[in-house]
Amino acid sequence: MATDLDRLVDEAHTAFAAATQPAALEDAKARFLGKSGKITERLKALATLTPELKREMGASINIAKSAIEQLLVQRRESLAELHLNEQLAAESIDVTLPGRGRSIGAIHPVARTWMRIEEIFRSIGFDFAEGPEIETDWYNFTALNSPENHPARSMQDTFYVDCNDGAGRPLVLRTHTSPMQVRYARMHRPPIKVIAIGRTYRVDSDATHSPMFHQVEGLWLDDNISFADLKAVYTNFLRCFFETDALALRFRPSYFPFTEPSAEIDMMFTSGARKGRWLEISGAGQVHPDVIRNFGHDPQQTIGFAFGSGLERLTMLRYGVDDLRLFFEGDLRFLRQFA
Ligand code: PHE
């Protein structure tokens, strides 16, 4: 009988070892320890035996039973461990693999200039405004005193949009940021101190001109703002922007329909590697009385200056870039230099 029980324990051992999933192990358990399992059957059979045999056999069966129970517990544990190891292996991260690498983005040089200008003018109390790139002919030209036959209005310079504003007024891609003077001044009372930066468009394309470019417009109106203020503000701006006092400025008489007098602002570095020749940097002037009237203000009481400068030109001078088209070609070899 003892050998039969030993065999049963061996059999359970083999059955448990063959079970590779918890469910299969529980099935195997039932075959030995369940209600009609092999051990249970043997315990039931004791009823027919004499008291002595019952005691003797019962003790042997119980030893076999606890041996099988122990085997079961061991197998349960080893299966759980196996499962855990499989899971760890499946989810493992190979820390020795080379990284995928992620290139770091950078701010475009023209955007950098945009941000610098904002910082500088905010520090002296200028407000910031943004306006539409598709403008009415009225804001872009008429309100700014541009006569009907002014060359800027010609098809050679201006992108006309093939529809109107709904009230029959022609639409254009704004040729400068000056319409923002009109929009802002019509919505505010003097004193007005505003900067408007944005994209502008002209039918123009070479090393120093692109059909799309950026301008910064400045406008300061009050009852006593003069050309001297323009000189001071603009000189201060350039010194901050280029981070040097070694700059000379020249206000060269010029013509714009919306300013009188008008000037072209030239600058020159007076020392260092960039020392050299005069470079045109901005248009500027005292806002024309007719334009002040178009703003809805009284030119007898309101006076001030405006300027408009190209962001690409400022950026080229700051970084020593000689071809404006490089800003818009998206060549990473060029752009990486500013990262
Ligand atoms: N709008 C002019 C241009 O685009 C520049 C300018 C702005 C001139 C403001 C005078 C005053 O050339």
Describe the structure.
The protein has 339 residues and is of the alpha+beta class. It has 2 domains: 89 residues; 230 residues, Bira Bifunctional Protein, Domain 2 (BirA Bifunctional Protein, domain 2), CATH 3.30.930.10. Helices cover 41% and strands 22% of the residues. It is built from 11 helices and 10 strands. Strands 1-5-6-10-9-8-7 form a 7-stranded mixed β-sheet, with helices on both faces. A hairpin with a 2-residue loop joins strand 7 and strand 8. Helix 1 runs antiparallel to helix 2, helix 2 runs antiparallel to helix 4 and helix 5 packs across helix 10. The longest helix is centred in the first third of the chain and has 40 residues. It is rod-shaped and about 130 Å long. The model has no long low-confidence stretch (mean pLDDT 93). Bound molecules: phenylalanine.
* Count of discrete alpha- or pi-helical segments spanning 4 or more residues: 11
What's the β-strand tally?
A: 10
The topology string of helices and strands comes to HHHHHEEHEEHEEHEEEHEHH
Q: Kindly give the count of domains.
A: 2
Ligand inventory: phenylalanine
Radius of gyration: 44 Å
CATH architecture of the largest domain: 2-Layer Sandwich
Strand order of the largest sheet: 1-5-6-10-9-8-7
- Report the end-to-end length measured between terminal Cα atoms: 87 Å
CATH topology of the largest domain: BirA Bifunctional Protein, domain 2
The CATH class of the largest domain turns out to be: Alpha Beta
The percentage helix is: 40-55%
